[in-house]
Amino acid sequence: MIGKLKDYFQFNKKERNGILLLSCLLLLLVLFYQFSYLLKQESKTDFSAFEKALAELEYKQEPIIEKQKDSLFYFNPNTLNDKGWLALGLSEKRLNTLRNFQKSGATFKTKTDLKDCFAISDEFYNRIEKYISIPTTIPLLGGVRGGLEKPKAIKEIVELNQADSLQLVSISGIGPFYAKQILKYRKELGGFRDYTQFTEIWGLENLEIQKLKKQTSIDTLYIRKINVNTIKLEKLKVHPYLNYKQAKMIVNYRKQHGDFKELKDIRKIKPISPELFRKIAPYLKTHD
Question: At 247, which CATH number?
Protein backbone atom coordinates (compact mmCIF):
# COMPACT_ATOMS: atom_id res chain seq x y z
CA MET A 1 0.00 0.00 0.00
CA ILE A 2 2.74 2.43 1.01
CA GLY A 3 4.71 1.50 -2.08
CA LYS A 4 1.78 2.36 -4.29
CA LEU A 5 1.46 5.79 -2.64
CA LYS A 6 5.19 6.37 -3.17
CA ASP A 7 4.84 5.60 -6.83
CA TYR A 8 1.94 8.05 -7.02
CA PHE A 9 4.01 10.97 -5.63
CA GLN A 10 7.19 10.26 -7.53
CA PHE A 11 7.71 12.40 -10.64
CA ASN A 12 10.23 12.21 -13.39
CA LYS A 13 12.31 15.18 -14.47
CA LYS A 14 9.91 16.29 -17.19
CA GLU A 15 6.95 16.24 -14.79
CA ARG A 16 8.87 18.16 -12.15
CA ASN A 17 9.71 20.88 -14.68
CA GLY A 18 6.04 21.11 -15.61
CA ILE A 19 4.98 21.44 -11.98
CA LEU A 20 7.61 24.14 -11.43
CA LEU A 21 6.42 26.07 -14.47
CA LEU A 22 2.80 25.81 -13.37
CA SER A 23 3.68 26.99 -9.88
CA CYS A 24 5.47 30.02 -11.31
CA LEU A 25 2.44 30.89 -13.43
CA LEU A 26 0.13 30.60 -10.43
CA LEU A 27 2.45 32.80 -8.40
CA LEU A 28 2.49 35.43 -11.16
CA LEU A 29 -1.29 35.40 -11.35
CA VAL A 30 -1.61 35.89 -7.59
CA LEU A 31 0.88 38.77 -7.65
CA PHE A 32 -0.86 40.36 -10.63
CA TYR A 33 -4.22 40.17 -8.88
CA GLN A 34 -2.82 41.70 -5.69
CA PHE A 35 -1.08 44.63 -7.40
CA SER A 36 -3.28 45.14 -10.46
CA TYR A 37 -4.74 48.33 -8.98
CA LEU A 38 -1.33 49.96 -9.47
CA LEU A 39 -1.63 49.48 -13.21
CA LYS A 40 -5.04 51.08 -13.50
CA GLN A 41 -5.05 54.61 -14.91
CA GLU A 42 -7.44 56.95 -13.25
CA SER A 43 -9.96 57.93 -15.95
CA LYS A 44 -11.24 61.48 -16.08
CA THR A 45 -14.90 62.09 -16.87
CA ASP A 46 -15.42 64.37 -19.85
CA PHE A 47 -17.92 67.04 -18.81
CA SER A 48 -17.57 69.08 -22.01
CA ALA A 49 -20.87 67.87 -23.46
CA PHE A 50 -22.66 68.53 -20.17
CA GLU A 51 -21.14 72.01 -19.88
CA LYS A 52 -22.18 72.79 -23.44
CA ALA A 53 -25.75 71.68 -22.75
CA LEU A 54 -25.76 73.73 -19.55
CA ALA A 55 -24.53 76.80 -21.40
CA GLU A 56 -27.28 76.40 -23.99
CA LEU A 57 -29.86 76.03 -21.24
CA GLU A 58 -28.62 79.20 -19.55
CA TYR A 59 -28.77 81.00 -22.90
CA LYS A 60 -32.37 79.90 -23.40
CA GLN A 61 -33.22 81.15 -19.94
CA GLU A 62 -31.74 84.62 -20.51
CA PRO A 63 -34.25 87.42 -20.11
CA ILE A 64 -36.38 88.06 -23.15
CA ILE A 65 -35.09 91.61 -23.04
CA GLU A 66 -31.64 90.54 -24.22
CA LYS A 67 -33.08 88.61 -27.17
CA GLN A 68 -35.38 91.35 -28.40
CA LYS A 69 -33.13 94.37 -28.56
CA ASP A 70 -34.30 95.10 -32.10
CA SER A 71 -38.04 94.91 -31.35
CA LEU A 72 -38.45 98.39 -29.85
CA PHE A 73 -41.09 100.79 -31.13
CA TYR A 74 -42.94 103.89 -29.92
CA PHE A 75 -45.94 103.09 -27.74
CA ASN A 76 -48.46 104.44 -25.26
CA PRO A 77 -48.26 102.33 -22.06
CA ASN A 78 -51.90 103.08 -21.28
CA THR A 79 -53.21 101.52 -24.49
CA LEU A 80 -50.55 98.97 -25.48
CA ASN A 81 -51.95 95.43 -25.75
CA ASP A 82 -50.41 92.22 -24.38
CA LYS A 83 -48.67 91.34 -27.66
CA GLY A 84 -47.05 94.76 -27.68
CA TRP A 85 -45.64 94.41 -24.16
CA LEU A 86 -44.32 90.93 -24.94
CA ALA A 87 -42.73 92.24 -28.14
CA LEU A 88 -40.94 94.87 -26.08
CA GLY A 89 -39.47 92.10 -23.94
CA LEU A 90 -41.69 92.10 -20.85
CA SER A 91 -42.15 88.58 -19.46
CA GLU A 92 -45.63 87.09 -19.06
CA LYS A 93 -45.24 87.03 -15.27
CA ARG A 94 -44.42 90.75 -15.16
CA LEU A 95 -47.20 91.45 -17.68
CA ASN A 96 -49.74 89.93 -15.28
CA THR A 97 -48.41 92.19 -12.52
CA LEU A 98 -48.72 95.19 -14.84
CA ARG A 99 -52.32 94.33 -15.72
CA ASN A 100 -53.25 93.96 -12.05
CA PHE A 101 -51.66 97.36 -11.43
CA GLN A 102 -53.79 98.90 -14.18
CA LYS A 103 -56.96 97.14 -13.01
CA SER A 104 -56.54 98.88 -9.68
CA GLY A 105 -57.23 102.13 -11.54
CA ALA A 106 -53.66 103.27 -12.09
CA THR A 107 -52.77 105.18 -15.26
CA PHE A 108 -49.46 106.48 -16.56
CA LYS A 109 -49.52 110.25 -16.94
CA THR A 110 -45.77 110.65 -17.37
CA LYS A 111 -42.93 108.34 -18.32
CA THR A 112 -41.60 108.15 -14.78
CA ASP A 113 -44.97 106.86 -13.55
CA LEU A 114 -43.96 103.48 -14.96
CA LYS A 115 -41.34 103.19 -12.23
CA ASP A 116 -44.15 103.01 -9.66
CA CYS A 117 -45.23 99.67 -11.09
CA PHE A 118 -43.37 96.65 -9.69
CA ALA A 119 -43.57 94.98 -13.10
CA ILE A 120 -41.22 97.56 -14.62
CA SER A 121 -37.62 97.01 -13.55
CA ASP A 122 -35.05 99.80 -13.78
CA GLU A 123 -33.21 97.93 -16.51
CA PHE A 124 -36.38 97.49 -18.59
CA TYR A 125 -37.41 101.14 -18.05
CA ASN A 126 -34.00 102.48 -19.14
CA ARG A 127 -34.24 100.38 -22.27
CA ILE A 128 -37.69 101.55 -23.37
CA GLU A 129 -37.72 105.08 -21.91
CA LYS A 130 -37.15 106.97 -25.15
CA TYR A 131 -39.88 104.96 -26.90
CA ILE A 132 -42.60 105.80 -24.38
CA SER A 133 -45.16 108.19 -25.88
CA ILE A 134 -47.95 109.43 -23.61
CA PRO A 135 -50.24 111.99 -25.29
CA THR A 136 -50.72 115.16 -23.27
CA THR A 137 -54.19 116.70 -23.08
CA ILE A 138 -54.26 120.46 -22.81
CA PRO A 139 -57.64 121.68 -21.50
CA LEU A 140 -59.20 124.59 -23.37
CA LEU A 141 -61.12 127.44 -21.77
CA GLY A 142 -64.73 127.52 -22.84
CA GLY A 143 -68.26 126.58 -21.93
CA VAL A 144 -70.34 128.37 -19.34
CA ARG A 145 -68.47 131.02 -17.28
CA GLY A 146 -65.03 129.94 -18.46
CA GLY A 147 -65.35 126.32 -17.41
CA LEU A 148 -62.93 123.68 -18.68
CA GLU A 149 -63.98 121.83 -21.77
CA LYS A 150 -62.35 118.66 -23.01
CA PRO A 151 -60.74 119.33 -26.39
CA LYS A 152 -61.97 117.41 -29.36
CA ALA A 153 -59.48 114.91 -30.72
CA ILE A 154 -58.39 115.79 -34.22
CA LYS A 155 -57.30 112.79 -36.27
CA GLU A 156 -54.18 113.50 -38.29
CA ILE A 157 -54.07 112.05 -41.81
CA VAL A 158 -51.06 109.74 -41.95
CA GLU A 159 -49.02 109.64 -45.16
CA LEU A 160 -48.11 105.96 -45.49
CA ASN A 161 -44.87 106.32 -47.46
CA GLN A 162 -43.27 108.54 -44.80
CA ALA A 163 -44.98 107.43 -41.58
CA ASP A 164 -42.91 106.05 -38.73
CA SER A 165 -44.03 103.35 -36.29
CA LEU A 166 -45.56 105.88 -33.87
CA GLN A 167 -47.75 107.37 -36.60
CA LEU A 168 -48.78 103.94 -37.87
CA VAL A 169 -49.98 102.72 -34.47
CA SER A 170 -52.19 105.80 -34.24
CA ILE A 171 -54.23 104.35 -37.12
CA SER A 172 -57.29 102.42 -35.95
CA GLY A 173 -56.74 98.69 -36.42
CA ILE A 174 -52.93 98.95 -36.68
CA GLY A 175 -51.04 97.78 -33.59
CA PRO A 176 -47.26 97.68 -32.94
CA PHE A 177 -46.80 94.29 -34.60
CA TYR A 178 -48.57 95.26 -37.83
CA ALA A 179 -46.85 98.64 -37.86
CA LYS A 180 -43.54 96.80 -37.90
CA GLN A 181 -44.76 94.52 -40.71
CA ILE A 182 -45.90 97.54 -42.76
CA LEU A 183 -42.54 99.29 -42.40
CA LYS A 184 -40.71 96.11 -43.39
CA TYR A 185 -42.81 95.54 -46.51
CA ARG A 186 -42.62 99.22 -47.49
CA LYS A 187 -38.82 99.01 -47.40
CA GLU A 188 -38.81 95.83 -49.51
CA LEU A 189 -41.18 97.35 -52.09
CA GLY A 190 -39.70 100.82 -52.21
CA GLY A 191 -42.98 102.39 -51.13
CA PHE A 192 -46.74 101.91 -51.55
CA ARG A 193 -48.53 102.88 -54.77
CA ASP A 194 -52.09 101.90 -53.74
CA TYR A 195 -54.08 100.51 -50.83
CA THR A 196 -54.50 97.01 -52.23
CA GLN A 197 -50.82 96.35 -51.45
CA PHE A 198 -51.61 96.28 -47.73
CA THR A 199 -53.51 93.03 -48.22
CA GLU A 200 -50.21 91.51 -49.40
CA ILE A 201 -48.79 91.93 -45.90
CA TRP A 202 -49.00 88.87 -43.68
CA GLY A 203 -51.83 89.29 -41.17
CA LEU A 204 -53.48 92.19 -43.01
CA GLU A 205 -55.23 90.12 -45.69
CA ASN A 206 -58.64 91.12 -44.32
CA LEU A 207 -57.80 94.76 -43.62
CA GLU A 208 -60.73 97.14 -44.11
CA ILE A 209 -59.34 99.27 -46.95
CA GLN A 210 -62.11 101.88 -46.83
CA LYS A 211 -61.53 102.43 -43.13
CA LEU A 212 -57.78 102.81 -43.76
CA LYS A 213 -58.38 105.34 -46.57
CA LYS A 214 -60.26 107.66 -44.20
CA GLN A 215 -57.25 107.93 -41.91
CA THR A 216 -54.35 107.92 -44.37
CA SER A 217 -53.00 109.00 -47.73
CA ILE A 218 -50.43 107.63 -50.20
CA ASP A 219 -47.99 109.94 -51.95
CA THR A 220 -46.33 108.00 -54.79
CA LEU A 221 -43.65 110.69 -55.15
CA TYR A 222 -41.88 109.03 -52.23
CA ILE A 223 -41.52 105.66 -54.00
CA ARG A 224 -37.86 104.66 -54.34
CA LYS A 225 -37.27 103.44 -57.88
CA ILE A 226 -34.70 100.95 -59.13
CA ASN A 227 -32.53 101.81 -62.12
CA VAL A 228 -33.14 98.75 -64.27
CA ASN A 229 -29.99 99.52 -66.33
CA THR A 230 -27.57 99.43 -63.40
CA ILE A 231 -29.18 97.17 -60.80
CA LYS A 232 -27.39 93.87 -60.10
CA LEU A 233 -29.15 90.53 -60.10
CA GLU A 234 -28.54 90.01 -56.36
CA LYS A 235 -30.55 93.14 -55.52
CA LEU A 236 -33.20 92.86 -58.20
CA LYS A 237 -34.21 89.32 -57.24
CA VAL A 238 -35.18 90.33 -53.66
CA HIS A 239 -37.98 92.64 -54.81
CA PRO A 240 -41.32 91.19 -53.60
CA TYR A 241 -42.77 91.18 -57.13
CA LEU A 242 -39.88 89.36 -58.81
CA ASN A 243 -38.43 85.90 -58.33
CA TYR A 244 -34.90 84.83 -59.21
CA LYS A 245 -35.81 83.54 -62.66
CA GLN A 246 -37.66 86.72 -63.71
CA ALA A 247 -34.91 89.00 -62.35
CA LYS A 248 -32.27 86.99 -64.20
CA MET A 249 -34.21 87.29 -67.49
CA ILE A 250 -34.31 91.08 -67.14
CA VAL A 251 -30.56 91.30 -66.42
CA ASN A 252 -29.68 88.86 -69.22
CA TYR A 253 -31.85 90.75 -71.73
CA ARG A 254 -30.02 93.96 -70.79
CA LYS A 255 -26.64 92.29 -71.31
CA GLN A 256 -27.65 90.93 -74.71
CA HIS A 257 -29.49 93.97 -76.12
CA GLY A 258 -27.98 96.88 -74.23
CA ASP A 259 -29.62 99.28 -71.79
CA PHE A 260 -33.39 99.66 -71.72
CA LYS A 261 -34.35 102.94 -73.42
CA GLU A 262 -37.90 102.83 -72.09
CA LEU A 263 -39.57 100.75 -69.39
CA LYS A 264 -41.99 99.31 -71.92
CA ASP A 265 -39.01 97.52 -73.52
CA ILE A 266 -39.21 95.07 -70.61
CA ARG A 267 -42.43 93.76 -72.14
CA LYS A 268 -40.33 92.34 -74.98
CA ILE A 269 -39.21 89.66 -72.51
CA LYS A 270 -41.96 87.11 -73.14
CA PRO A 271 -42.01 85.48 -69.67
CA ILE A 272 -42.73 88.93 -68.16
CA SER A 273 -46.52 89.01 -68.35
CA PRO A 274 -48.49 92.27 -68.80
CA GLU A 275 -49.87 91.85 -65.28
CA LEU A 276 -46.39 91.49 -63.77
CA PHE A 277 -45.14 94.48 -65.78
CA ARG A 278 -47.96 96.67 -64.42
CA LYS A 279 -47.03 95.66 -60.87
CA ILE A 280 -43.27 96.18 -61.18
CA ALA A 281 -43.15 99.21 -63.54
CA PRO A 282 -43.86 101.87 -60.81
CA TYR A 283 -40.69 100.71 -59.05
CA LEU A 284 -38.37 100.87 -62.06
CA LYS A 285 -36.62 103.61 -64.01
CA THR A 286 -34.20 103.67 -66.94
CA HIS A 287 -31.98 106.54 -65.79
CA ASP A 288 -31.14 108.49 -62.64
Answer: 1.10.150.280
